[in-house]
Amino acid sequence: MLKKNMKWIVLGAIFILAIVNYADKIIVGITVNPIMADLSLDYGQWGIVGSSFYWLFSIGGIIGAAYSDKIGTAKMLAIMALIWTFAQSMSLFIMGLPLLLFSRILLGAGEGPFSAVAVSHLSKWFKPEQRGLAISILNLGNNVGKSVTAPLIVILMTTFNWRIAFFFFGIVSFVWFLAWLWIGRQKPAEEIIETKTTVNEIAATVEKLSFKESLKLFLTAKFIFTTLAIFFGTSAIAFTLSFNPAYLMNIRGFSAETAANIIAIGGLTGGLCAVLISLFSDKVFKKTKDFYLSRILFTSLCLILGGSSYIGYMYFQGTTLLIISMILINAFMVAMFSLAPQIVNSLNPQRRGLMYGTAMGIGSTAGIIAPLVYGYVLESFSNNLSGGFITVVFGFAAGIIICGIMLLIFGRQKAGGDAVQV
């Protein structure tokens, strides 16, 4: 009985790790005001703090995902949990900007491979028609992390201080590592066999592709526009993690508790909606076996609607409308990040870690660039911070919408550029 349900236990464990993963990211945004006051930082320096998380994130993502193909995804997840533990525990000793930057850089390197490795590990346990659901549940962990941990972070921050809040999640990572020592050793009852239907029009073979052949796949419209979607989606995440709490508190005038609740409600409800979107996508795929219709079209619509919701977020007035816009943002963007891995993985199913790891590695460079740009823009708009925030959001929202349109148009093309018959 336990063996039969092991895939759900594995999914549950990785779901919990996803909660910790997102908590580690968002904690710096929730604690922005006490950290900036304690360490005497301005918005320009805060942009560096937000950017530093991604300095080794992309490199860690590519190297970690590729290395997981050699040592196994289970071992790689364990290694990452230990790195997170050490990085977050350093908070007890942070007294200035340099050590804060070092801890964020280390954490970023350790979290870089998570998405690709987690998706790859779950793909070993779930059949193609179930992967949309499995990955959406994985990504729901991010929203649960946002909704559950945001209020918890505020409580820890106000009851103790921001350093204790960081340290708490370091301990949680270590407890997860101890549990994974047993769960990670389990193997699927049967091997998941890939079929041509799974990859639809992709001429996948049992043999791994050479680097030259893989390079051709990296130049396909599907890979390029999906990677760009990840890039602008990551830009949006960078805003959400490091600047959105400051926007809600310093521009909209909400207290830390209210801002955390807005983030929590929007994250949890939107995440649940994202699961429904992914379930519907899975149903369409199971019924039609049409990869373009079930995956690419859904991803494109999520991008277009998600980007539009960000624009609305800047103009909606009142707490209720802000929460609604946050729900829409989370629903569409989380669903996009659930479906995008399947698009790039379909290009070369035998090297999922490489394909999605590369897409995430390239796309995540936005995490380095975006916070620096945001910090610079906000400092430039020091006399009109509201206008600065609007400028920032319009920039990445436009990119998200354009990627959705381009993927919608060119998503049927194969490596050779011919239209795909589906």
TrEMBL record:
A matching Pfam family: MFS_1
One term under GO cellular component: plasma membrane
Ranges that cross the membrane: 47-67, 79-102, 164-183, 217-239, 259-280, 292-315, 321-341, 353-377, 389-410
Membrane topology: Multi-pass membrane protein
InterPro entries linked: MFS, MFS_dom, MFS_Na/Anion_cotransporter, MFS_trans_sf
One GO MF term attached to the UniProt entry: transmembrane transporter activity
Domain of life: Bacteria
Localization annotation: Cell membrane
Domain Major facilitator superfamily (MFS) profile: 10-416
UniProtKB keywords: Membrane, Transmembrane, Transmembrane helix, Transport
Keyword Cell division in record: no
PANTHER family, A to Z: BLR1003 PROTEIN (PTHR11662:SF450), SOLUTE CARRIER FAMILY 17 (PTHR11662)
Protein name listed in UniProt: MFS transporter
Organism: Cytobacillus horneckiae
